[in-house]
Amino acid sequence: xxxxxxxxxxxxxxxxxxxxxxxxxxxxxxxxxxxxxxxxxxxxxxxxxxxxxxxxxxxxxxxxxxxxxxxxxxxxxxxxxxxxxxxxxxxxxxxxxxxxxxxxxxxxxxxxxxxxxxxxxxxxxxxxxxxxxxxxxxxxxxxxxxxxxxxxxxxxxxxxxxxxxxxxxxxxxxxxxxxxxxxxxxxxxxxxxxxxxxxxxxxxxxxxxxxxxxxxxxxxxxxxxxxxxxxxxxxxxxxxxxxxxxxxxxxxxxxxxxxxxxxxxxxxxxxxxxxxxxxxxxxxxxxxxxxxxxxxxxxxxxxxxxxxxxxxxxxxxxxxxxxxxxxxxxxxxxxxxxxxxxxxxxxxxxxxxxxxxxxxxxxxxxxxxxxx
Length: 372
What we know:
Mean pLDDT: 78
Keywords: Coiled coil
Low-confidence stretches: 18-31, 166-197, 278-284
Shape: rod-shaped
Region (Disordered): 22-44, 149-203
Structural class: mainly alpha
Strand order of the largest sheet: 1-2-3
Distance between the termini: 134 Å
């Protein structure tokens, strides 16, 4: 295309040349026909001029073509360099893509392995938890059975280990309540040896329900609570709980009653063989031979603590029996309040009456001595 453009330019130049120029005579006259020699010289001159101009044009065209060729070569080199650079970039990107793909696959395999390990550990923990749940459910079922079969009149000794004999419980030092009294009341001379006590025939006990007391109990049972606002508990407080916990030390008696109501009273046996530790407050709390509630000199085999941080108070067997009778009553009505007693209303009522009789008996000074 460049050669064609050069030749077209040369053609235009040749066309523009005047092939037969006008011959003018000096002095402004008409030019006559040229002579033959002059015409030949003119033709030679014209041919020579044309050859010179053609040669010049060819040289200029060659120079232009060389410049364009050099420019094309430079541009081609630049494009080659650009292609090489892009090829390197492509290779680098392909390598990075391969590395990224391999890293992603490795990370995915690692996550799958960790997920499998965690799933196996979770399944193992789930099985262990299910096993523990089964064990706990079995224990709860057994505990419910023990609670439902345990009443203050016939407590379950597995549920209440403090009711076991000293030889059975050993050095167990927790709340030990007085064993519930049944029908007969031992006489004051009941301190004889167990071998000398004769077995008396027990007559059948008759009973008759008081309609007023039963109506008050039924009204309380519809919405059981430990508030004194009900007629049932108000009567029990005034006739049984208050008198049973009324001791010479009135201030300490009130604290004992509050601890029994809040279920924070602790009764512990005292080892007789161990020498007592006398503290600064021993005069106020009584001692091993002085009851802190009655103030009378008695051999104190038990001590009480009001709450978790209170001091210990030594109590006589009679005071312990009175406190234990009140504790038995509150324990049973708490069972009723919590829905753990599955008897009918009449059986509950007679159990409450029996517990009230125990409080009255203990208040009058009768109790069962600990044979230990």
